[in-house]
């Protein structure tokens, strides 16, 4: 028997962000967000809709995970992509 699907604590905020990304052209920030979300949901036992949309977005923006991660590593090395949230909390959970 398969384990039950889990609800990710960041699901609502991530779903909202992903919906925005699906309607956007890829900017450096959007590519960084996509990479961050792929890492967050990799192997997560739930949020199948988010995982499917992440893969669709990756394809539609012409990247593989490998090329996206290489690009965003270089991007983070060159410049600060994320500023600390207004409440002082980073969104890496």
Arithmetic mean pLDDT: 89
Number of strands: 0
Share in helix: 55-70%
Query: How many H/I helices?
Result: 4
Structural class: mainly alpha
Q: What is the global morphology?
A: globular
Profile the largest sheet: none
Count the domains: 1
Distance between the termini: 28 Å
What does this molecule look like?
This protein has one domain. It contains four helices and no strands. The mean pLDDT is 89. Helix content is 57%, strand content 0%. It is globular and about 45 Å long.
Short description:
It contains four helices and no strands. With 93 residues, it is mainly α. The chain has one domain.
List keywords for this structure.
mainly alpha; 93 residues; 57% helix; globular
């Amino acid at each position: 028997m398969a384990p039950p699907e889990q609800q990710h604590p960041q699901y609502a905020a991530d779903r909202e962000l992903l919906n925005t990304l699906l309607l956007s052209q890829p900017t450096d920030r959007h590519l960084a967000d996509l990479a961050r979300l792929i890492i967050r949901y990799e192997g997560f036992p739930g949020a199948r809709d988010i995982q499917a949309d992440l893969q669709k977005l990756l394809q539609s923006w012409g990247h593989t995970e490998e090329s996206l991660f290489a690009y965003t590593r270089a991007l983070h090395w060159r410049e600060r992509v994320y500023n600390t949230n207004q409440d002082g909390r980073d969104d890496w959970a």
